[in-house]
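This section describes the prediction task in plain terms. A model, or a person checking by hand, is given the sequence of a single protein chain and must write out its three-dimensional structure as a string of C-alpha cells. No templates, partner chains or ligands are provided. The sample shown here is typical of the held-out split.
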Amino acid sequence: MIQPRWAKGVPFFISGTLFLSGVFALIAPVPLAVINLQSGRVRALLALFTNAIVVFALGGKASGTLYLALVGVMALALPEVLRRKGNRGSIELRGLQLVGILLAVIGAGIYLAAHRVGAAPLAMVRSEVFGTLDAILSGLAHDSKQTLMGDLEPEEWKRMFWEELPSGLGISLLSFVWMNLVLVLLANPGKVRERLKLSPSFFSNWRLNDFLLIPLLASWVLVLLDVGPASVAAMNVAKVLLAVYAFQGLSILASLMDALGLIGWVRLPIYGASIFLMLPLLLAIGVFDQWFDFRAKFRQAS
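The expected answer:
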C-alpha cells in the first residue's frame, strides 16, 4: 500500500494536537515514542521539535513548557527504557524507571523555581496549592462549595487535599506511564515486543506479584489504627497500590474480551465505561484475582 505524501508529515504535528485536545493529552507521547523506536532518535527529536512549536504557538508558554516537561521527557525516555537490555520480561521495572525519571524532572523543576524566588521548595509548593484552592473556592457559589467540601470548613478541606496530594500525584504519574507503555508495546514499533520476549497477548496475561498484597494490607491496617502522620502516609500508599490493582483489573477485562472474541475499537468504550462508571468493581476484581485467578476460569469456559 502506497502511503500518501501528506501522511508522512502527520508525525510532526499529531503529538502536539493530541496534547492540545485535552481529552487525548495523556497519550501524546505515543506517536513520538513510536517514531523513535521505528525510525530512530534523530527523526524523533525533529518530530518533538515541530510538535513543541505547535503547542507553544497555539497553547502559549505554559502549555509548551508542560508539553516539553512531561510529554517530551516521556517520549524520549520510554524508547530508551524499552531498548535497555536485561530484565527482558519485566515491564513493571521499566514502568517504575519511567515514573522515577518523571519525578526527577518534576523535582528539578520545583527546585529551580523555588531557588529563583528564594523559597523552600516544599513551602513554595504548599503556598501555590493553597493559593489555587482559595481561588477555586472564591469562584464557586455557596451550593457548589457545599457539594465540593461537604461539612468541612475551608481550612480543613485544604489540609486534607494537601495530605492526599502525594497519592494524587503518584496515581497520575502511574496512569500516564502505564497508558503510554502499554500502547507503545501494543503498537510494537521496531518489533520491540520481540526484543523484550513479550507475546502479543502480554497485556491480557499481565499479573501482579502476590507480594504486593503485603504492603497493601499493612497500609490499610495503619489507616484503620489512625496513628497520625503514619496513617496519612499509609493512606497515600494504599491509594497508589489500589491504582496498580485497577490496572490489573483492566488486564483481566482484556482477557475476558479475548475470550469473547471482541477486538479492535469495540474495546475502547468498554474500557472507558469500566474506568469511569465501574472503578470500584475494577479495583475489586484486580485485588481478588490474586486469590481466584479469574483468567484461568475464562480459559476453561472458552
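For orientation: Residues 204-302 form one domain.
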